[in-house]
Amino acid sequence: MRKNIVAGNWKMNNDLAQTQELIADLKKQVSADPAATIIVAPTYTNLYPAFKALKDTPISVAAQNMHQNANGAFTGEISAAMLKSVGVETVILGHSERRAYFKESNELLAEKVNTALENDMTVIFCFGEELEDRKADKHFDLVQSQLKESLYHLSKESWKNIILAYEPVWAIGTGETASPEQAQEMHAFIRKSVADAYGSEIAEEVSILYGGSCKPGNAKEIFANKDVDGGLIGGASLKAEDFLAIVNSF
Ligand code: PGA
């Protein structure tokens, strides 16, 4: 049975004290047996304090990015082994902000995915179309090539450590959400694409999250779709109450 997952991407928000405060709120409010697997992704500097504070809770910690090389002269970068050494087992790769502002290509992301998997990490792989792609009716092709170029070289075995996150770029941080129908249509397309590449067993097992202006007020109708297995939450993950209301939308 595939998992329902709600992940909070805190992006470049919250210093140490604010991170500790948010975590304290989450710990106070989270139920002992939540309706979904819960993951939060603080900034690099707050990963270790977050890991320590969340250790015996149902909430686990992910990084927002990672370098593809094992180590070496890559000033400012962080490796998979460094993340693992501070308790981080999951990494978000391919977020649209990384693609847009840091020019991360499908090819580079394939390398990062390989490195994460070689280090036994779980990858939350983000992808999705821009508004122009959708207007030009190219969104399915675009998503297909993102999947193919970054993931479809992987072995069948690797897929147990892959979580997909469809995030239409036009819905991220804009207040504009994909309608439940648009989300389901794309998620069904993604699952079929994985089934065509790897067979239906793997396609049925992979969790496909939706991201883009997901809030307590719309999460329930988005998550009710058969191929939507949760969400990757930006803005609304910065308040414990809102984030946990989204978790409780299953
Ligand atoms: P948002 O961000 O929920 O603020 O739209 C989603 C994301 O970037 O993962």
Automatic annotation (TrEMBL):
Pathway linked to the protein: Carbohydrate degradation; glycolysis; D-glyceraldehyde 3-phosphate from glycerone phosphate: step 1/1; Carbohydrate biosynthesis; gluconeogenesis
Protein's cellular compartments: Cytoplasm
Keyword Ion transport: no
SUPFAM superfamilies found in the cross-reference section: Triosephosphate isomerase (TIM)
GO biological process: gluconeogenesis; glyceraldehyde-3-phosphate biosynthetic process; glycerol catabolic process; glycolytic process
UniProt source species: Zunongwangia atlantica 22II14-10F7
Reaction equations catalysed: D-glyceraldehyde 3-phosphate = dihydroxyacetone phosphate
Family to which the UniProt record says this protein belongs: Belongs to the triosephosphate isomerase family.
Region forming the signal peptide: none
Function: Involved in the gluconeogenesis. Catalyzes stereospecifically the conversion of dihydroxyacetone phosphate (DHAP) to D-glyceraldehyde-3-phosphate (G3P).
UniProt-listed PANTHER family: TRIOSEPHOSPHATE ISOMERASE (PTHR21139)
GO molecular function (one): triose-phosphate isomerase activity
Keyword Plastid in annotation: no
A GO-annotated cellular component: cytosol
Quaternary structure and partners: Homodimer.
Database matches in NCBIfam families: tim
EC number: 5.3.1.1
UniProt keywords, alphabetically: Cytoplasm, Gluconeogenesis, Glycolysis, Isomerase
Protein name per the record: Triosephosphate isomerase
Active-site residues, as the UniProt record annotates them: 95 (electrophile), 167 (proton acceptor)
Binding site for substrate: 9-11, 173, 213, 234-235
